[in-house]
Design goal:
alpha+beta, single chain, 176 residues
Length: 176
C-alpha cells in the first residue's frame, strides 16, 4: 500500500507558522518596552558602577516591599516631575542616615565601603569646588514610605542630600 499525502491548505500552513511567530514577537516587544527598561547612562553620577555611555537594564515590575539597601533605582526628581535620576538605596523608613568625614552611617553603623566602588583612576579633582573636605551631613530620619538615595560618585551625583528623601511612588524601576 502506498502512503497518501494529504494536502494541507496554504492558509493552515501560514497559521501554523505565523501565529507562533506573531505571539513571540508581541511577547518580546511587551517585555522589552513594558517590563525591561534599557537606559543609556547619561552622566558620571554612578561611576564606577555604571559608566557614562553604558546601557543598564531596569525592571519596571517590582515589589516596593522587596527594595533593599544597596539596590540601584531610577527615581523621578521631586523638584521636576519630568526629570529622573539613578541612585542607590541607602535608607528605608525609620532609618537615620548621616555622613561624617565622607563615611556614610545608617542607624549609627558605618555602611560597607565596598557598596560605593572607588574609581580605578581619578579623573576629577578629589574635592570639587563647593564641596567641603569632609562632606558631612547631619542625621536625617527617613519618613514612612520614603527612601534615602545616594549616588555612587558622591562628588558629582544628585541624590537625597540635595533633593531630600524620595517617596516610594517616585521610584520607577530597579536595576536587574
Amino acid at each position: 500500500m502506498s502512503k497518501t499525502k494529504s494536502k494541507v491548505p496554504l492558509k493552515t500552513k501560514l497559521i501554523v507558522i505565523l501565529l507562533p511567530m506573531g505571539i513571540g514577537l508581541v511577547s518580546a516587544m511587551f517585555v522589552k518596552y513594558k517590563v525591561l527598561l534599557p537606559v543609556a547612562i547619561p552622566n558620571s553620577y554612578m561611576e564606577p558602577s555604571l559608566k557614562k555611555g553604558d546601557t543598564a537594564y531596569f525592571n519596571r515590575f517590582y515589589r516596593k516591599s522587596q527594595l533593599g539597601i544597596g539596590d540601584v533605582v531610577i527615581a523621578t526628581s521631586p523638584l521636576d516631575p519630568n526629570s529622573t535620576f539613578i541612585a542607590r538605596i541607602i535608607g528605608k523608613r525609620g532609618d537615620s542616615i548621616s555622613i561624617q568625614k565622607r563615611m556614610v552611617f545608617r542607624n549609627g553603623t558605618i555602611l560597607d565601603p565596598t557598596m560605593f566602588p572607588e574609581p580605578s583612576t581619578q579623573s576629577i579633582a578629589l574635592i570639587p569646588a563647593g564641596k567641603t573636605e569632609h562632606d558631612d551631613m547631619n542625621p536625617v530620619t527617613v519618613p514612612e514610605k520614603h527612601f534615602f538615595l545616594l549616588a555612587d560618585n558622591r562628588e558629582l551625583g544628585v541624590d537625597s542630600r540635595t533633593l531630600g528623601t524620595i517617596q516610594e511612588s517616585q521610584i520607577i524601576a530597579v536595576m536587574w
